[in-house]
Amino acid sequence: MSKRQQQVADFIKNQPQVFINSSSRELEQKIGVSAATIVRFVKILGYSGMEEMRVYVAQQIQHEEHSIELKINQEDTAELLEMKMIQLYRDSVESLKETLDSDSLEKACALLRSANRIYLLGVGTSGLIAYDLYHRLNRYGKTTFYNTDAHMSLEFTQQSTAQDVIVAISYSGLTEEVVVGAEAAQIRDTPVISILSNTESPLAKATDIQLVIPQTEHLVRLAAVASRIHSTLVTDILFSGVIKENISNIQNASLKTGELVSKLKRK
Length: 267
Description:
Residues 108-248 form the SIS domain. This protein has helices at residues 3-14, 16-21, 24-32, 35-44, 50-66, 78-99, 102-114, 125-139, 150-157, 176-187, 202-205, 223-243, 247-262, and strands spanning 118-121, 144-145, 165-169, 192-196, 209-212.
């Protein structure tokens, strides 16, 4: 970036509202560079012209104005907590777009659809996410195995073959109970799909398809909640990808399950 382009960049960063409200000629005087230099800088960034750039900057200002410090404080009211959690969910969705590769996601969904059986691995919070996915897949007719006892889950995975799939969930990619299961699966040629944030972790090395979520745990705020949201969003996408091509049969399976469960309800 040239010295003059840096001047433009610094001005937009420090005085975004002035940039939005000023014409090219006015900016020329305020920044100290020619209008042509400003326009060239805007186009280098990929915008069609000044107007598009102004819209983008305005959106960023609006986002900042509505941003809330995502940290729980003792004096927070219920209304403020509601606002913080809503923003956390919104931000989590946006940040996931930056790390989750669509091609990997498509391959993972195809692999799960064709699998004879699905085995899930996860402990702690990841275990709760795995447990939820386990129930949903089974409810809709996809044979899936999971147990909240990590040793039992590992025992289940020992039956997996090359026609099955293992989904391993671990934010850090370091959870031993999950890594051991993934490594053992590869010996049996069972494909492994992982949901993780650390692409250099032991789990990543024992994975065929990585579904990468943002690294948030280093942030001292609502990081643990954010990582749960990210992992849950990914499993929601995988679940939808599995059931979407067999909707009629899945609806029948759901109805039968619902009828069976309804017999347990008091009248």
